[in-house]
Structures are given as C-alpha cells and as structure tokens.
Here is the input.
Amino acid sequence: MFEWVMLAISILVFPGILFLISLALFTQWYYRKLSGRLQNRMGPTYVGPAGLLQPLMDLWKLIHVKEMAVNKYSLPSLAQFFGLLGISALITSLLLFPLSPYHVTGPYDFLVFIYLVSLWVPLSMLIMSLSMPGPYTSTGVSRLLTFITLIEPSFFAALLAPVALASARTGIPYSVLEASKNAIYCWTNPLLLPIMILSLIAAIVVLQAKAMFQPFNIPEAEQEIIAGYETEFSGPLLGLASLMHDMDIVVTAIAITYLILGGPYPFPHLSVPGIILLIVKYMAVVTVATIIKNAFGRYRIEQALNTIFKYALIPAIVALILAMIYLYA
Amino acid sequence: MYGLIAGDPGTVALALSLLMWVVFGILAIIYFVVRNNRVRRTDVYLSGEPESIVNKLSPSPANLYWGFLKKFAHGLYKQLRDKVHTGNLQDWVNFMAGWYGLLLILAIIVGIIYLLKW
Here is the structure.
C-alpha cells in the first residue's frame, strides 16, 4: 500500500508533475534573468519577487486566457496530444534517477532513459510542428530534424561513457541509479578523469543544442524564419510547446548533474551538504549554458552542425572508446 | 527504498511506458480543465502575404534533410555522386568491391587474432 502512495507522490508531486513544472519555470526565469543582466537589461521583473513568477504567469496566460489560432490545414488535437505525450515522457524519465522517492531500476535502464528522452521528446516536438503546417514551420522542422541527427547520438554517447564506467562494478550494469551514485568516484581516478572531462564538454554542447540556445538557435531563427518550427503555435499549444522545451532543458541538465557530475554524492540526498551540492551543480550547468548563449551569435546550419560534430560527437565517441578500453582491455 | 527493481531492461521499459500513459492521462485532465477552449480561424502565417504567393504550402519531405545532406555532409554527398553514381556500372562495381575487399581483409585479421588468442 505504501509503495503505491510513494509512486503517486513521485508522479504527482516530487519529482513528477508539480516539481518538474516548477523547476522548468524557475530555470526559465533564471536563464532569462541572467541573460538580461548579461545584456544590461532587467530581465523578468514585474510578477513576483524579482520577476520570479513571470514564467508561471506567461504559461497561465497562454493556456488559460489566450485563444488558439488555427488555419484550415491545422490538426490542433494531434499537436496537443503529442505535446502532452512529450511532457509525460520527460516526467516519467525522472523515476530512473535517485532523486525520486520511488525508483524504477534495472540493468541497461539507461537505454530506457534514452528511449524516453531522445525518442519521444523530439518525435513529439516534430509531430506537434508538422500538425500545424506552414512554410516557416517546414523550414524550422527541416532544421530541427537536421540537428537531431547529430544531437541525439551525441547525447547518448556523452552519457554512455560515464554510465558504463560508474555502473560497471555495481552488479547492475548501465543502470541510471547506480551510475548516479558512483559517477563522483570516476572524478577521483586519474585514469578516468580525461574521460569524464570529455563527456562533460560533449554534454554541455549537447545541452546548448537541445535547448536551441545561441549559437544553435537556427531551428527557431527568430526574425529570419519568424519562429521556425513554433510559428503556427499559439495560445494553449504554445504554452505546451514552451513548457516541453523548458522541461527538456531541465531533464538534460539533471542527467548531466547526476550521470556526469555525480549528483549530491558522496553526501546523501536528505542532508544539507547533499542538497546544497546538488543545487550548486545543477545551477552551474544552467549558468554555463546561459553564459555561452549570451557570448555567441547564431551559427548557420552547417556551422552549427560542424560545431556539434567537433565539440560534442567526437569528444563523446573518444570518451566512449577510452571507457571501453579501460573496462574491457 | 521503494520502487521496482527489475531483472531485465524489458520490464523497466514496460513499467515506464505504462507510467508514461498514466502521467499522460493526469496531464490531459489538468490541461483540458484549465485551457481556454476558444479557437480563432485564421490563414497560414506568410508575413501578411496571401497563400497564392507560394507554390506549395509545405516543401517536399525530400528537403527535410537539406541542411544535413547538402551542407554538413556535402563532401560525402559529392563523393557518392561523383564516384559512385556516375552512371557507369564499372564505377559502382569498383566502389563496392573496394569496400567488400576491405571488410574481408578486416574479417580475416580479426579472425586470426581471435584464433591466436585461443
């Protein structure tokens, strides 16, 4: 009976629907505020202390107040279905992490994490876009698809090396839970340190590209192709797309925080040093992404792909080869 | 610790897929309760121009990977076009025989290493 209660809490409250939505909105506020300060602007200001509730107000306004604009080619029900499905996949993926009071774990569950995050989320985003067609949308989707061909393999490879190393001697290979608990010890082994650094660099570049932050914002390319794949979204549908985008950033940052940086460990979750360490690592990841966002301009599609190839895919594959040599040689 | 500790990844995939649909159901209820149901009919956004200015509203699916094939992997695309798809069967045979020969040599080397180790 208590198991079901914990499962319900994990899905509904922490780290499920309520927590993930709150963290996504907080993360959006943080990168908007920091971007504002870096550009000598105020950033969100009016709603809540220091504008903290602005993203919540924006989301509420889009979903509850604004009407949805549709044209004769639109399939809004299909778009909303996939918007909700993508968000559900992101929420469910957090049950694999030690953050959740109710764990789902098993050997090779990292592949299930990739299945949820790298398959359902991009697929949902693409189908949402294609359900609301238009020339700008098609151009945006074309660029997004092109990005996905490099981003998702890079994401998989960047996380696979630390997961393989950290979960190797735990008895549950390639488990997200075990890898999260042991990743921190890979940083203290001088042989594994270069592998972890390469994986971290690759993962940060991937986060930047998945978030479509500069220099990788060519799929939405504001002003050039209006809003790219999001051009025909409005009202509640735009709210869903925006929420899914922010949740994707959060889940990617959480994956980097746990699987590469080691989460709160060696301290337990429910301890003051553990909580502080976890928050510091998460905020550091988001801060680095925001600083890169503000330091670069937009790359052209082939420049963006070359950068992802050089600084994400190649380091991730090198890290993976080195990790396999370490484990099996 | 509360949770499901599975012995194989299939069970984890099944459990999480089921939970994903449960979360979807809960989210759908919340969303349809709070969302604004009003819908406004409009034209496709074309920067204020009428639909007649475009031949096709949506480019061909063949163009979806334009950025990847024509820009990023241009060198590979050019090689494939100029060396393999020249229209000459001999070029294609040379290309395929070259690759199969390389794979055969690799397979023999790996086989020898494997046998010597045993």
